[in-house]
Amino acid sequence: MPENMPGPDVKPLNWRPAPGIGYTVIRRPDGGMQFTFTDVKPATVKHWRDFSIQHLYDSDRLTRNLYDLRQLTDIPEEAIRVALEVNSDPAARNIRLAVVVANENVRQAILKIEDLTPAGGVDTHVFTNMDEAEAWLSRPLEKLV
Questions:
Q1: Which CATH number fits the domain that encloses residue 82?
Q2: What gap in Å lies between CA 48 and CA 26, rounded to an integer?
Q3: In which domain, by residue range, is 85 found?
Q4: Please, how many CA atoms are within 13 Å of residue 45, restricted to the half-sphere of its CB?
Q5: For an engineered disulfide with 28, which of 1, 32, 43, 82 has Cβ 3.0 to 4.6 Å away?
């Protein structure tokens, strides 16, 4: 198996594009997911929420995810509320999340989500550089306390 492909024990992605949805997901070589958002319209946020909740149902291992939000200029309050709901799921404690942003509005929205996420939830860090985000994600995974 090529080095950059996840092993056979990696959970299936089960993501399909849908008309009008402003994000894509691919499986990362480390088994996590990489989300790339082009918009956060209500249909996109609902689709992302449903997909994310489904993935959390049987989350049983530490995971590295990356969110590429560099194409966004703003994140509406409804999207922040939905992100808080997903981050508050007990299974979210198994996620190390790097978020890459391109502007201060989006950075502040992500910091707000991070601040309001219950202790022991998603381990989130915000970056403006993809290489720095990847370096942080590649650190050894440890159970979050």
A1: 3.30.750.24
A2: 13
A3: 23-137
A4: 15
A5: 32
CA distance 36 to 23: 5
Q: What is the pTM of this model?
A: 0.87
Element (H, E) at 96: strand 95-100
State yes or no: pLDDT of 137 exceeds 90: yes
At residue 142, does pLDDT exceed 70?
A: no
User: How far is 78 from 15, CA to CA, in rounded Å?
Assistant: 22
Confidence bin at 123 (pLDDT 50/70/90): confident
Q: Is residue 10 part of a domain?
A: no
Using N-to-C axis directions, what is the helix angle for 104-116 and 77-87, rounded to 10°?
40
What's the confidence (pLDDT) of residue 72? Answer: 98
SS3 124: strand
For strands 33-37 and 23-27, give the pairing: antiparallel
* Mean pLDDT, the chain, integer: 86
Q: How far apart are CA 120 and CA 104, in angstroms?
A: 26
